[in-house]
Amino acid sequence: MPLASLIAAGVLLAGLDRTLPPPPMPEVSALVTDREGRALRAFPVEDGRWRLPVDPEAVDPAFRAALIEIEDQRFYSHHGVDPLAMARAVGSLVSTGRIVSGGSTITMQTARLLEPRPRRTIGAKLIEMVRAIQLEWRYSKAEILQAYLTLAPYGGNLEGVRAASWAWFGHEPDVLTPDEIALLIALPQAPEARRPDLRPDAAIASRARLLARMERAGLISADRAADAAEEPAPMRRAFPALAWHAAEHLARPGGEVRSTLDIRLQTALESRLAELAANAGPDVQASALVVSLDGREVRAAVGSAGRDRAGGWIDLTRRARSPGSVLKPFIYGLAFEDGLAGPGTRIADLPRRFADYNPENFDRTFRGDVTIAEALQHSLNVPAVQVLDAVGANRFLAAMSFAGGRAIVPRSNEGDAGLAIALGGLGITAEEIAVMFAALGAGGEALPLAWTEGEAAANRSGTGYRLLGARAAATLVEVLQRSPAPPGRMPARLTSGAPAIAYKTGTSYGFRDAWAAGVSGNYAVVVWVGRADGAPRPGETGRQAALPALFDIFDVIARRDPSGISALPEGPAVRRASGPLARFERGVSGPDIVFPPDGSDVWADGPGRAFALSARGSAPLRWYERGTPLEIDAAGQSVWQPRGPGFYELTVVDANGRSARTRVRVRMPGPS
């Protein structure tokens, strides 16, 4: 064509394109994939159609070759309209009196899909030709092929080869068998008449004709074509629905989001939690997170154990619940940071009142003198509250808030956080607990959870919040590795025998929430078990309900990523501290009276009954009744012998001159 004619044609096309531009490409379904691009969950577009984004290079090359061969042999050489194909179609029309071959190119078919017309008339065909030329003017061949593969109809509400492959075969179209290729080419020619689920015979017959054409074109052998023709018609399958809650948060309209999740780990986690909840009862739910310390990538996230269970539609990893004792390690970690204590520091596990707060251990027993390490490993309550009293509840909450924990905290009338937060008297989410335990395993540096590679890269290049110093964090990990293992497990080890797990369990007040959180190698894991409505589950503790699942998940991780679960070095057993850290006394204003407690009634059998007095404090302890020293028996125990019924005031003084006082009422049989 002469240069002048080309210029004139270009000007004409440009003017037409400005005046009557072709319709825009329609919106595609939101799709969330795992870290390797494997589909996790797809979302239909507004009209309920499944139209998944398609990358032609990710579609089986054998399908693309067969499509071009059968639908548009000169696709890469024509400019939207194929004159030879049109001449063949016109000849067939003249000779038979009906349309036998439409002569439509892939570009023309794409134009028809973008701008559907109710009737296939000659006028409609002419408009398609013009639109096809416009598309070729605007877009590359790759973009046109992508549009066709995204829009081609496959029956019902299915559009595009990717949606069709998932719906009819249950997998991506990256690898297709001959029968699948033939069906995917045949269906768009008559999508409703050949729907496999409604008209299986028509689908099989049309597929057989396409297989024969593929054989004649040399795309497939006769034996493979014959075998493929024997396959039954497929039934429609459900679209991917993994990581249901996480995908909903990540989905973006009209596009694909590649997450940091690992589909195999996600599948294993969903299966394990579904099994856990099913065995625990009909109303029980569970949620869990797996976080890689590298970039804080979320590798698996299960918001509930199943949408068919009560509360299953709620993302329970984002709901604030009471953590029970899960946060105790960070209280002790701050004490290590402040030089208040070390893991070998002795601390008294005895009854003690903190103003109007009187904590008890979970089993309602006390163990006397223990080390800080033992107090943490056995989750003793009074030592944790005593250490928090010294660290400061407000400081502890400030550290959590900077680390990403937006705690819902009850406060006193003075505006200070209460000491009950040591035992779970606040609300925090599984995601926030994951941030803190990931920090514990990463030398104390807290970073936000990353759900995409971009967020992970930002974490790797940025600076987080220093929740704990590296030494304090490492010390806590060593202490927690020595916590008592769940039944049937070696202490703090996986069944695979690889690494030690530093973990902590928690049970909220009234058995409403059971927790287990831990870190090992490059991973942190958080598990929650309970009821979505917060109803109690009497007797179900974090150790019983959640800890076995935590160990199982670490087992799965070890099989999936052995290098990421390398064993952390296990240091020597915690030694008894000496010097200033030998004993934890900070925050104690005076001795603590164990018996008789202040304001209590003491029953005596009669006059002359003696009572052994008990208090905690710096020895020696001296007891007085209204200023009169009390006797000490042969065992060195102070003994009090009330004279009769009535009110008494007793005082104890420690070696430093600090005192505590208790007022009691003595009752005896008969009038008092």
From TrEMBL:
**Pfam families, per database record:** BiPBP_C, Transgly, Transpeptidase
Signal peptide positions on this chain:
none
This protein's UniProt keywords: Carboxypeptidase, Glycosyltransferase, Hydrolase, Multifunctional enzyme, Protease, Transferase
Which Gene3D superfamilies does the record match to this protein? Biosynthetic peptidoglycan transglycosylase-like, DD-peptidase/beta-lactamase superfamily
Report the superkingdom from the record: Bacteria
**Pathway field:** Cell wall biogenesis; peptidoglycan biosynthesis
Catalyzed chemical reaction(s): [GlcNAc-(1->4)-Mur2Ac(oyl-L-Ala-gamma-D-Glu-L-Lys-D-Ala-D-Ala)](n)-di-trans,octa-cis-undecaprenyl diphosphate + beta-D-GlcNAc-(1->4)-Mur2Ac(oyl-L-Ala-gamma-D-Glu-L-Lys-D-Ala-D-Ala)-di-trans,octa-cis-undecaprenyl diphosphate = [GlcNAc-(1->4)-Mur2Ac(oyl-L-Ala-gamma-D-Glu-L-Lys-D-Ala-D-Ala)](n+1)-di-trans,octa-cis-undecaprenyl diphosphate + di-trans,octa-cis-undecaprenyl diphosphate + H(+)
Q: Where is the Penicillin-binding C-terminal domain?
A: 587-664
Q: Which SUPFAM superfamilies match?
A: beta-lactamase/transpeptidase-like, Lysozyme-like
Family per similarity comment = In the N-terminal section; belongs to the glycosyltransferase 51 family.
Name-wise, this protein is peptidoglycan glycosyltransferase
Tell me the organism.
Glycocaulis albus
